[in-house]
Amino acid sequence: HFLDDLVVPLVLPRHPTNEKANKVLEVMESVMNRILDGELETEVQDRLRGHPMAVGLEDKVYANSYVDLGAAEVVGFDYDYTLVSYKPALLHLIYDIAKTGLVEEMRYPADLLDDLKGYDP
């Protein structure tokens, strides 16, 4: 296939000082690239087939754990209920904190606090 030559290998980020973590990342990077290349697919499927702990695609959770949130100024919430259901009290709290933050931190007009009464789904 002509696109095979265009595929760039997966490269995981490295820790600046923890060599033990970097060795784990290096091994995982190698395994993940073998999976992406299709080298391990049959072997892995054969080992998992019929195993009592095997997880079907419908039960998997996907996450990106290589995001450095330390550099983020704003963190948002995912409201599509794919991972959790929020209690109404939390929704009201998030709304109020965001509203106050807009006025105090982002210099929105103070009238906003009075104009926006509260969270209304």
From TrEMBL:
A Pfam family matched in the record: 5_nucleotid
Source organism superkingdom: Eukaryota
GO molecular function: 5'-nucleotidase activity; metal ion binding
InterPro entries hit by this protein: HAD-like_sf, HAD-SF_hydro_IG_5-nucl
UniProt keyword terms in alphabetical order: Hydrolase, Magnesium, Metal-binding
SUPFAM superfamilies recorded: HAD-like (SSF56784)
PANTHER family: 5'-NUCLEOTIDASE DOMAIN-CONTAINING (PTHR12103), FI20020P1 (PTHR12103:SF12)
Name of the protein in question: 5'-nucleotidase
